Amino acid sequence: MHVIEAKGFKIPIIGLGTWTLHGRDCARLTEQAIRIGYRHIDTAQMYDNECEVGEGVRASGKRNEVMVTTKVQPTMLAPLDLERSVKESLARLRLDVIDLLLIHWPNPRVPLSETLGAMAKMRREGYARAIGVSNFTMALLDEANKLCSEPLVCNQVECHPYLDQDKVIAACRRHGTAMVAYSPVARGGVKGDKLLERIGEVHKKTATQVCLRWLTQQRIAVIPRTSKIERLQENFTIFDFRLSDTEMKKIAGLARRGGRLVDWSYSPDWD
């Protein structure tokens, strides 16, 4: 299994994102992904599917091999709220421990030091094996690493060829923090991209596979979401080819202004 290591914690480089997956479909896709070979499953309190994700993980019979991530929603970042919500997440997942616990979005109304203190406590008390952040900018990442008493192993952010995230990637590398890309195929937007298709023809791969390979070749973990079982296999079959330096540069050149897809009223000031 291809992994990236951050501060002694191993993160499988390809995972299944479960945003918008619900009910039996969610449990079935989770179980099937693990059967195919996925060892990284991503959920969140905000997705309202932790029960089904946990069900799929348990049904696979491979719980001990799988890294499950969940994320604390921004309205639950005050210490007592955070602790209670993490215990509720664990109960919904019906797992022994949360492998990777993230702050889903920063919340400027709650001091970061208080939130990180509660996150560190969750790790020390055995509710989570590792902790990290999501949607953190360079400045927030710098601040978080100064404030947190436990290692922050990842920053999960939107990342795909149409969005230049070089500054955040550099900040992650500086702190020894893994970068995990959500929306890695731009919510399906890479399908039909002429450049990615041309490169794909050379390697006998789809535009989606080329895009995922471009990220993983930079040691960025990816969590593509799909609701189709046949797509699980396509997304996973990306380690039997390598992109050239020229191809990597051409794909990086797809970045454009306005390439960001996920931007809410409570988003931080992006880099």
Structural notes for this entry:
By secondary structure, the protein is of the alpha/beta class. It has one domain: TIM Barrel (Alpha-Beta Barrel). 40% of the residues lie in helices and 17% in strands. The strands form 2 sheets. The protein has an 8-stranded parallel beta sheet. Strands 1-2 form a two-stranded antiparallel ribbon. Strand 3, helix 1 and strand 4 form a beta-alpha-beta unit. Helix 1 packs parallel to helix 2, helix 2 crosses helix 3 and helix 5 runs parallel beside helix 6.
Features:
271 residues, alpha/beta, TIM Barrel, 8-stranded parallel sheet, two-stranded antiparallel sheet, 40% helix
Brief overview, please?
This protein is of the alpha/beta class and 271 residues long. The chain has helices at residues 23-36, 50-60, 79-93, 112-124, 138-147, 166-175, 194-203, 207-216, 229-236, 245-252, and strands at residues 3-6, 9-12, 16-17, 40-42, 67-72, 98-103, 128-134, 152-158, 178-182, 221-222.
Q: Indicate the mean pLDDT.
A: 97
The biggest sheet amounts to: 8 strands, parallel
- Secondary-structure element order, as H and E? EEEHEHEHEHEHEHEHHEHH
Given this structure, which CATH class is correct?
Alpha Beta
Question: Low-confidence parts, pLDDT < 50 over ≥5 residues?
Answer: none
CATH architectural label? Alpha-Beta Barrel
What is the CA-atom radius of gyration, in angstroms? 18 Å
Order of strands, widest sheet: 3-4-5-6-7-8-9-10
Give the full name of the CATH homologous superfamily: NADP-dependent oxidoreductase domain
Beta-strand share of residues: 15-25%
Number of strands: 10
Task: Quickly count the domains.
Answer: 1
- Name the overall outline: globular
- Work out the helicity level: 40-55%
CATH topology: TIM Barrel
- State the secondary-structure class: alpha/beta
Number of helices: 10
Taking the alpha carbons of the first and last residues, their distance comes to: 32 Å
